[in-house]
């Protein structure tokens, strides 16, 4: 019996731990104070970091010092600083002050939220109330005043069997869906798109190896810019990670400097970004929209200021966005934009793409196409190899 207990306990603990960790994903309360002026920001050795952090809200600057040299491209000045057709929606993909988990938009998220709501919370609540009632009953019924002569009872076989078996059954009930969820998390379907996510102090870069390996640098918007664009404070970014709706997206997550963690609560996705190591996770979102997350590993002074914004767009819009970045769609050689781009400079190709795209105005990133070249230049050679 003891061995059986141990096996179940270990299995349940193993299965529960990740779920419990993920359950804490609710974004922390955002600090009330305005963005600090940061006179003490350590001298950034990385020119990109220094530049982008100094002016995190200027889309034409985020690509680093190269942007100044490349300012000859008039697109940067003319571009309205829109991000995509997706607008943030209160309560979807971002915290809205309620208790509990955010609404889930991935298969794993739905499964995990069901596990939390239908299995874990009821079990925890029933056990807590039951134990509380037992303790109340013992404290009142068997208090000293009512029992001047205490009972000398020490054993009761039936009760001992019950209080051994019932917890075992509860653990089994929890372990089955828990281990199933764990297995599903680590057994992703075949990926339609791979995005390489890199943490940096203190911003994210997203590389698209399936689409010509272009890179997007994502910096947080300043408070004023976030307000102007209707983005949530401390969550809005200048360049979102754009992915197509309904596609299985594989994330390869790593870091350029210290340990970060890529976390998007609405996707039930949280994974460490460790230098020198590739971690993998996945998500599939059917509903177009923008979903926010934050770095979830203490990574330095501006840890709180490197948010994540994932833009889930219809596949056609994704293709237009890729073209605007100078990238290509796999197996889409006959596409007019890809053909026209040919050997032309990325900016020219992007400009053409924006004209050829069915709905150019919805893909605002098209306008900032000049950045593509600059951003590629910012890729860390060590990782881009
Ligand atoms: Cu970080």
UniProtKB/TrEMBL annotation:
The keyword Membrane belongs to this UniProt entry's keyword annotation: yes
GO BP term (any one): ATP synthesis coupled electron transport
Catalytic class of the enzyme: translocase
Protein family according to the UniProt entry: Belongs to the cytochrome c oxidase subunit 2 family.
Pfam families in alphabetical order: COX2 (PF00116), COX2_TM (PF02790)
Record's compositionally biased regions (Low complexity): 47-81
GO MF annotations in UniProt: copper ion binding; cytochrome-c oxidase activity; oxidoreductase activity
Protein name, as recorded: Cytochrome c oxidase subunit 2
Spans traversing the lipid bilayer: 119-140, 161-183
Topological category with respect to the lipid bilayer: Multi-pass membrane protein
Compartments, record wording: Cell membrane; Membrane
Cofactor entry: heme; Cu cation
Cofactor note: Binds a copper A center.
Organism superkingdom: Bacteria
């Amino acid at each position: 019996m003891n061995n059986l207990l141990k096996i179940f306990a270990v299995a349940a603990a193993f299965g529960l731990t990740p779920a419990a960790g993920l359950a804490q994903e609710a974004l922390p309360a955002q600090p009330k104070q305005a963005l600090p002026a940061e006179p003490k920001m350590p001298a950034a050795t990385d020119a990109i970091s220094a530049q982008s952090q100094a002016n995190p809200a200027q889309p034409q600057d985020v690509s680093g010092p190269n942007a100044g040299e490349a300012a000859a491209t008039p697109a940067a000045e003319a571009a309205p600083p829109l991000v995509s057709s997706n607008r943030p929606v209160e309560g979807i993909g971002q915290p809205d002050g309620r208790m509990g988990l955010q609404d889930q938009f991935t298969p794993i998220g739905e499964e995990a939220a069901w596990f939390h709501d239908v299995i874990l919370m009821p079990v925890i609540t029933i056990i807590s109330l039951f134990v509380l009632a037992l303790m109340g009953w013992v404290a009142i019924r068997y208090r000293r005043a009512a029992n001047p002569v205490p009972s000398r009872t020490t054993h009761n076989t039936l009760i001992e069997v019950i209080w051994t078996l019932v917890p075992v059954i509860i653990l089994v009930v929890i372990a089955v869906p828990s281990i199933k969820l764990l297995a599903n998390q680590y057994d992703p379907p075949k990926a339609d798109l791979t995005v390489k996510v890199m943490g940096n102090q203190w911003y994210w870069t997203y590389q698209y190896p399936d689409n010509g390996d272009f890179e997007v640098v994502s910096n947080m918007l300043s408070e004023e810019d976030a307000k102007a664009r209707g983005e949530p404070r401390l969550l809005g970014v200048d360049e979102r990670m754009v992915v197509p709706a309904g596609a299985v997206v594989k994330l390869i997550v790593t870091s350029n400097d210290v340990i970060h963690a890529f976390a998007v609560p609405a996707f039930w996705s949280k994974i460490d970004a460790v230098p020198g190591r590739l971690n993998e996770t996945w998500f599939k979102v059917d509903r177009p929209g923008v979903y926010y997350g934050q770095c979830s590993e203490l990574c330095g002074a501006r840890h709180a200021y490197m948010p994540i914004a994932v833009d889930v767009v219809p596949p056609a819009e994704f293709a237009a966005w890729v073209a605007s970045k100078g990238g290509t769609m796999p197996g889409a050689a006959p596409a007019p934009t890809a053909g026209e781009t040919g050997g032309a400079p990325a900016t020219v190709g992007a400009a053409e793409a924006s004209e050829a795209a069915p709905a150019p105005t919805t893909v605002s990133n098209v306008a900032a196409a000049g950045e593509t070249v600059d951003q590629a230049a910012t890729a860390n050679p060590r990782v881009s190899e």
